[in-house]
Design goal:
Layout: H1 3-21, E1 30-34, H2 40-48, E2 53-56, H3 59-72, E3 79-82, H4 91-97, E4 100-104, H5 107-116, E5 124-129, H6 143-154, E6 159-165, H7 174-193, E7 200-202, H8 209-214, E8 219-222, H9 224-227
Parallel strand pairs: 1-2, 1-8, 2-3, 3-4, 4-5, 5-6, 6-7
Length: 234
């Protein structure tokens, strides 16, 4: 058994335990393996262990990796998620190569993704990134501006608005972690009450996974705990 296989088993066990502790079904939360900065060989090793959803932050690295993995395993369908900042001049390759985008924070970006999604491909699944902690260094729409953006994005063709994403301020206390995720869940519930058919809360990473699951996360994003240390982490 490879190290990546062992790590995936441990993370999945933690997720199941966290879901059980929150009174949720074991399969209520999906694992997104953040493979940024790791090569196609790491993705292939995770594939061999059963992982199918992968998150990438950097457009060109991701496009090259997607091609390399498809060449090595052409019969295996993977789900690629873009989880990094989006520059206007990089929307086309994102629209062409990914199934999900978690980091939409401006209507202009959503419009470009909609226009550039190739005909014949399924609608691009969208999460809106919310700056839930109000940090100047973090990307994301302000909570007060979220509803207007959500309704605008939901109306665009070739996109499906699925939910919200956030990277709260890093804190170590469990209750503080839960409080931030609870804010995102409340915004999500308000949008649903306002008629938007949302089903996704992308929140939680290695250090705050349990708190995120307790507050309703449906996707958690884990990288170094699966693939090993890197020089910088999301």
């Amino acid at each position: 058994m490879s190290t990546i296989d062992q790590n995936l088993q441990a993370i999945n066990a933690t997720m199941r335990d966290a879901a059980a502790g929150a009174g949720r079904a074991p399969d209520a939360v999906r694992l997104l393996a953040v493979s940024k900065t790791f090569g196609a060989d790491a993705v292939l090793a995770a594939m061999a262990a059963g992982q199918r959803a992968f998150g990438e932050n950097y457009v060109q690295e991701a496009v090259d990796k997607i091609a390399a993995v498809a060449l090595a395993e052409p019969a295996t369908a993977l789900e690629w998620h873009f989880i990094g900042p989006i520059q206007s001049n990089k929307t086309r390759p994102i629209a062409e190569h990914f199934a999900w985008v978690h980091t939409v924070e401006r209507e202009k970006i959503a419009q470009r993704l909609s226009e550039q999604r190739p005909a014949g491909m399924a609608p691009l699944n969208i999460c809106l990134q919310v700056n839930i902690s109000g940090e100047a260094s973090k990307s994301g729409v302000a909570p007060a501006e979220l509803a207007a953006l959500a309704h605008a994005v939901a109306a665009l063709p070739n996109l499906t608005l699925r939910g919200l994403m956030a990277i709260p301020e890093a804190v170590t206390q469990y209750e503080q972690q839960r409080a931030a995720f609870a804010q995102l869940r409340l915004l999500y519930e308000q949008l649903r009450a306002d008629g938007l058919a949302l089903d996704t809360l992308s929140m939680g990473m290695s250090a705050d996974l349990r708190a995120a699951v307790a507050e309703g996360a449906t996707i958690v994003r884990v990288g170094s705990a699966i693939f090993g240390s890197r020089s910088y982490d999301q």
